[in-house]
Amino acid sequence: MARLDERMLWFDGMAEPPSLYLTQDDLERLSDLLDAQGGRFAKLEGELARAVVVPREKIPRNVVTMNSRVIFENETTGERREVTLQPESALR
Q: Global pTM?
């Protein structure tokens, strides 16, 4: 069961936040977006600071990165929804 706390999404029973892996390109894109926001997202900046930067080819297939397509399934209704994680700049 997931719950949202004031810092980030935590999962019941977890003592530490899950590992965070980013590609160099994704780190640069997110950092550029944060710079444009003038420091309004300090918590996200902290998360990016703790991220492990790895080459794209080293990201496991079950890890969501920018431009990943993800299928969500509602376990109650069985409804499925596919989304692509994109930076806001790609939507313009």
A: 0.60
